[in-house]
Amino acid sequence: MLKTLPALAALAVASALVVPTVSQAAEQDSMRVSYADLNLASDGGQQNLEKRIAFAASVVCGPAEHRDVPQVQLVGECRAATYNDAQPAFQTAVASARRGEVEILGAALIITAH
Question: Three-state secondary structure along the chain?
Fold first, then answer.
């Protein structure tokens, strides 16, 4: 019995720490994606930014429980729409880089869940 109390106390503390983290993640519907370290005039830089955009879309749209098929479909649609919505800003950033007009301090895209 005495060994059970510390285990239950540890479980209660761990649960209290996880709940705010999960709720905060659910509230995040946009994410800043920096490209200040990338050369968008190169194919490699463009590919890296596209990967960052895809990752940000997966974060802002949230995870999908693989056993819940309708949810998986909705999350997939959100990710695709979010990625596609970022493409005009991506193309503008690439065009600016090719013209040599990149502002390093503001070199970021805001990815917002669709």
Answer: CCCHHHHHHHHHHHHHHHHHHHHHHHHCCEEEEECCCCCCCCHHHHHHHHHHHHHHHHHHHCCCCCCCHHHHHHHHHHHHHHHHHHHHHHHHHHHHHHHCCCCCCCCEEEEECC
